[in-house]
Write a structure and sequence with these properties.
Blueprint (H helix, E strand, L loop, with lengths): L2 E7 L4 H14 L4 E6 L18 E4 L8 H6 L3 H7 L1 H10 L4 E5 L3 E3 L4 H6 L5 E3 L10 H14 L6 E5 L2 H16 L3 E2 L4 E2 L8 H4 L3 E3 L17 E3 L5 E3 L2 E2 L2 E3 L5 H10 L6 H14 L23 H9 L1 H6 L11 H7 L1 H4 L5
Parallel strand pairs: 1-2, 1-4, 2-3, 6-10
Antiparallel strand pairs: 4-7, 5-14, 6-7, 8-9, 11-12, 12-13
Helix pairs in contact: 1-10, 4-7
Protein name: Glycosyl transferase
InterPro entries: Nucleotide-diphossugar_trans
Length: about 350
C-alpha cells in the first residue's frame, strides 16, 4: 500500500514545510512526500531537492495551468498556493498513489497518522471540521463558529483521498473550481480552496468526517481541546493522542488567539515554543522572509492587490497584456499609471 503526502507553499514558507516533512518522516518514513512550490528561488539561493527531506517536487507553473503568467497575476500568494492544490492532487493520483494525505506547511505531526490511513479503508474522502463542539461564549461564537460559517466548515489544512472513483471525481471537481475561482472573497461565497469543500459531503459519495480531538488542533478549537503532556511524555488533546497541530498565524496574532482560548496551565505553550525554535533552525539566512517571485513587477515594484483584482475582472486587460508582470512601454503597469481614474473604479 502506497501512501503519499503533499504540502503546498512558496519559498517564504520553506522553513515551515521542512518542519512538517521532518515530523511526518519521523513517524512515517515510508510515505512519499511531495513539495508543491508555486515560486522561483531568489538570486543567491539554491533549492536542491537532494538536500531536503522531500522526495519529489512539483512546481506550480508545471501543473498544466494555461497562460501561467496571466493566471498567477490574478492571485496573491495564499490564493496561488491553494489554487494549485487540486491539480497537484490529480497529478499524484495519476502517479499511482493508493492513498494521499494533504497537510498545510504550518502543521507538525506529533504521533502516527495510522488512524487516518485506516479510515481510508472505509472512506474515499476525509475532512476535519474546524469545530466539533458548539461554543457557549459570544466571543468564541464570533471567532470560531461565525468565522467557520464565512470561511468554511472544514479546515483544508488537512485532506485525505483514496485512489478510487469518488476520490478522482472530487479531485477533478476541486481542480476545476480552484483553477478559476480560488480567491479570498468571502463576500462572494469563496474563500480560496476551503469554502468549496463545504459542498463535498453533498456532492460526493463515501465522505468521512473525522472528529477525533487529536486531529488538526489549532486556535480555532482550543476552547474545547485541552493540550497537555502526560507524565510519560505523551502529548494529548482531551486524553486522545495529539496527532497533528496546526500552527497557524506564527507570530503575535497566533500568540493572541492561543492565549484567548487556552487555559494558562495548558501545555500548548510548550508546543509553540518548540515550533518556533524548529522553524528558526530550518530557516535559511539567505532566503528573504517574505520572498515570492510573483509579488512584484519586473522592475521590482510591489504589485498592489487592487492591481491583481482589476486584471482578474477585466477580460480586455487580459487580452491586451498577456504578461502583466512586464514593466516599461506598452505594459499593464504603464497602463495603470496612465489610467489611474479608471483603474481606481470598483470592479463588479
Amino acid at each position: 500500500m502506497s501512501v503519499h503526502c503533499f504540502t503546498s507553499f512558496s519559498f517564504s514558507y520553506l522553513n515551515r514545510a521542512r518542519v512538517l516533512v521532518h515530523t511526518v518522516k519521523k513517524f512515517h518514513p515510508d510515505w512519499i512526500f511531495w513539495a508543491v512550490i508555486t515560486d522561483e528561488a531568489p538570486e543567491g539561493f539554491t533549492f536542491n531537492l537532494s538536500n531536503e527531506g522531500f522526495d519529489n517536487v512539483l512546481w506550480g507553473q508545471d501543473l498544466k495551468l494555461k497562460d501561467f503568467e496571466a493566471w498567477i497575476f490574478k492571485h496573491d500568494v495564499v490564493e496561488a498556493c491553494t489554487a494549485v492544490k487540486g491539480y497537484a492532487l490529480e497529478h499524484i493520483l495519476r502517479d499511482g498513489a493508493e492513498k494521499i494525505v494533504y497537510l498545510d506547511p504550518d502543521i507538525a505531526v506529533f504521533n502516527p497518522l495510522d488512524l487516518v490511513v485506516k479510515a481510508l479503508e472505509d472512506y474515499s474522502i476525509l475532512l476535519t471540521p474546524h469545530q466539533v463542539r458548539p461554543e457557549k461564549l459570544e466571543m468564541a461564537i464570533r471567532d470560531n463558529e461565525i468565522t467557520s460559517s464565512r470561511l468554511g466548515t472544514y479546515n483544508l489544512g488537512f485532506l485525505a483521498i483514496r485512489n478510487d472513483s469518488s476520490g478522482h471525481e472530487m479531485a477533478e471537481w476541486w481542480a476545476a473550481r480552484l483553477s478559476k475561482m480560488c480567491y479570498d472573497t468571502p463576500e462572494d461565497g469563496i474563500f480560496v480552496d476551503q469554502k468549496w469543500c463545504d459542498l463535498v459531503p453533498a456532492l460526493f459519495d463515501n465522505v468521512g468526517i473525522l472528529r477525533n480531538p487529536g486531529l488538526n488542533v489549532a486556535s480555532w478549537n482550543l476552547s474545547h481541546r485541552n493540550v497537555r503532556i502526560s507524565a510519560s511524555g505523551e502529548i494529548l488533546a482531551n486524553e486522545a493522542l495529539l496527532r497533528f497541530f496546526h500552527f497557524t498565524k506564527l507570530g503575535p496574532l497566533g500568540d493572541t488567539m492561543t492565549k484567548r482560548y487556552a487555559t494558562p496551565d495548558s501545555d500548548v505553550y510548550e508546543l509553540w515554543l518548540w515550533y518556533k525554535n524548529a522553524v528558526r533552525q530550518f530557516t535559511d539566512d539567505g532566503l528573504p522572509s517574505r520572498w515570492w517571485r510573483y509579488a512584484t513587477y519586473d522592475d521590482g515594484k510591489f504589485i498592489d492587490k487592487a492591481d491583481r483584482v482589476l486584471y482578474r475582472h477585466r477580460q480586455d486587460l487580459q487580452d491586451a497584456f498577456a504578461n502583466p508582470f512586464a514593466s516599461g512601454v506598452g505594459s499593464f503597469q504603464e497602463w495603470l499609471k496612465l489610467n489611474k481614474d479608471e483603474s481606481n473604479k470598483p470592479t463588479t
